[in-house]
Write a structure and sequence with these properties.
Elements lengths: L11 H5 L20 H13 L19 H6 L27 H22 L2 E3 L6 E4 L3 H24 L5 H20 L3 H22 L3 H8 L1 E6 L8 E6 H5 L3 H23 L8 H13 L3 H6 L7 H5 L3 H30 L2 H8 L4 H10 L10 H10 L6 E2 L6 E2 L4
Antiparallel strand pairs: 1-2, 3-4, 5-6
Length: about 425
């Protein structure tokens, strides 16, 4: 029996007042459709009366019900409510996928409800009834609050496992519905419902997490399962858009961190053969290592690395559109950013090792190259899997120098290899 991981039941008025993410404060759902809440309520009731929007037996609503409305409005240029009412223009061509029924939304919204309950428990030193959300008693001491947090955390983790195990283990079932969900996000975006599309994309990320846990596969494998979509990019401002293939789950995501994570894996996989040819055997990567590497950077709190490693930032087509000075400036600034991130990464990795003397010896080095060399040698008494001399030689050969202005002719040149 689930107590925390249960999709929120709400009235129509409560649904209308739900704040949309990525918008200014108090931008409620009804404002994405109408100027007033009354118009939103009247429109939904009209769809109920016409039989286009079935009413649940308990007359409650779920947050996902908001995704059905653009489809209904797109098929009705005018709806009669009372004396007169005109549906808002510009709804666009939009179809709500029939595969996304309550059986799909309930676990997605349930997982979010459980995690929201845990966050509230961490903030609020009190005990609440998980079924009714009624305040039972306050917790006067920190020890009592910590005990309640642990109790709720354990309960929610157990309910999440129940939720995952209750879902089908058929990969085809997941493929069809995740494709439909990603298509729904794209349709909302193309129909101008950007804020509603952002909320739907957040629910898609949660659904993808449920799929990974139920099928026992990584996000990379899940993206391959769901399939390829396309996205429009403009290499240069003002140029015509170019359609480029991309995994559907990545394309539909609104999260910069998720897109950067996915694209970093794709970029590393595309360049892994040339990288392995240049790397020493100990540093070569196979296909599974690529995702493990990016996931490790995420777990270590180094997500900026994945942002900097996405293919677009080093795309040859973009470089060709730039002048020489622009190319030098862009490459040099990117390398400096990566060096800064490497410096931050070294601090995190040194702390993970947990050797105070080793930490001091690394941090006492004045510049990054020496600090990196000290880290690669490892703590005393341990054999490093990396040959520090090879890394130093690589640094010397591919050293990036800043642009140097010639006094003789005023031109700018640089030694960038």
């Amino acid at each position: 029996m689930l107590s925390y991981c249960v999709a929120e039941r709400m009235s129509l008025s409560e649904l209308a007042r739900v704040d949309l993410p990525g918008a200014e404060h108090n931008f409620c759902i009804y404002r994405d459709f109408f100027r007033t809440e009354a118009d939103f309520l009247n429109c939904v009731r009209a769809f109920h009366l016409s039989g286009q929007l079935p009413m649940r037996s308990d007359e409650t609503y779920r947050l996902s019900d908001a995704y059905r409305l653009p489809s209904l409005m797109a098929g009705a240029t005018r709806v009669q409510i009372g004396k007169s009412f005109s549906a808002p223009p510009g709804n666009g061509l939009y179809f709500f996928p029939s595969e996304l029924d309550d059986a799909w939304w309930e676990p997605v919204l349930g997982l979010l409800a459980g995690r929201a309950a845990f966050r509230r428990t961490c903030r609020e030193p009190a005990v609440r009834d998980p079924a009714t959300d009624r305040l039972l008693r306050t917790l006067p001491t920190k020890d009592e609050h910590d005990a309640e947090i642990e109790k709720v955390r354990t309960a929610i983790l157990g309910e999440e496992r129940q939720l995952v195990e209750s879902l089908p283990s058929d990969s085809e079932w997941w493929r069809i519905r995740l494709q439909a969900h990603a298509t729904l996000v794209k349709q909302l975006r193309e129909a101008g419902r950007v804020k509603l599309g952002r909320l739907c994309a957040h629910h898609l990320d949660v659904a993808s997490l449920l799929a990974e846990r139920r099928l026992g596969i990584s996000r990379r494998c899940l993206r391959v399962l769901v399939g390829i979509g396309s996205r429009s990019i403009r290499p240069v401002v003002g140029s015509p858009p170019i359609e480029e293939e991309e995994f559907l789950l990545t394309e539909a995501s609104y999260s910069p961190a998720t897109r950067a994570h996915d694209r970093a894996i794709d970029a590393l996989e595309r360049t892994s053969s040339s990288y392995n040819a240049a790397a020493i055997p100990e540093l070569r990567l196979d296909q599974s290592d690529v995702e493990d590497f990016v996931s490790h950077m995420h777990d270590a709190g180094l997500d900026d690395w994945t942002t900097q490693l996405v293919a677009e930032m080093w795309d040859i087509d973009q470089l060709l559109e730039m002048s020489e000075s622009q190319r030098i400036s862009m490459v040099y600034s990117r390398v400096r950013v990566l060096c800064t991130l490497l410096e931050e990464a070294l601090r995190s990795f040194v702390e993970i090792i947990g050797d105070d003397a080793f930490t001091k010896s690394v941090e006492s080095q004045g510049v990054l190259s020496r600090r990196l060399g000290a880290f690669l040698k490892g703590p005393p008494g341990k054999v490093s899997p990396v040959a520090p001399g090879d890394v130093v030689a690589l640094n010397d050969e591919w050293r990036v120098k800043p642009p140097v202005t010639s006094v003789a002719n005023g031109s700018t040149s640089a030694n960038v290899r």
